User: Which sequence fits this backbone?
């Protein structure tokens, strides 16, 4: 029953639900940290932050995407986060979130939608190809935390 899910723009009031979902995959942060991040995201025209809500009004999934222009690849939208509550997976929620991100990307005249997925996220490596995404490359990702910043 995929029509039961409402896809809408995220709101600041969704911070606790977003934090809870992120925590289920080990990507969690405290609600207040998520709220601060969400405020910045919602205030940015280059970011899309949407949620899937069940008929009872509960957030069961979210997607964040970011639009950008790169010299080497042109205009693209990158899905930077997608999480769906475990008990509603494989019921069309993720598919609907991705479809909305693709509509947003088309509205911005993006040339492509891309997504990176941790090699440990086995489900993702079946999900995205099933939606028509092609494996483009593999890479290592390096990070250096800046002093005084909370991750």
Assistant:
């Amino acid at each position: 029953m995929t029509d039961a899910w409402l896809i809408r723009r995220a709101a600041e009031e969704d911070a606790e639900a977003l934090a809870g979902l992120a925590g289920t995959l080990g990507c969690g942060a405290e609600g207040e940290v998520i709220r601060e991040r969400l405020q910045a995201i919602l205030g940015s025209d280059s970011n899309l932050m949407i949620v899937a809500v069940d008929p009872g009004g509960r957030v069961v999934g979210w997607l964040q995407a970011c639009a950008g222009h790169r010299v080497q690849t042109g205009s693209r939208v990158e899905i930077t986060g997608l999480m769906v509550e475990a008990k509603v997976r494989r019921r069309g929620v993720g598919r609907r979130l991705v479809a909305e991100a693709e509509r947003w990307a088309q509205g911005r005249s993006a040339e492509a939608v891309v997504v990176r997925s941790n090699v440990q996220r086995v489900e993702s490596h079946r999900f995205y190809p099933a939606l028509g995404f092609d494996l483009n490359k593999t890479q290592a990702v390096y990070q250096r935390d800046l002093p005084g910043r909370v991750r």
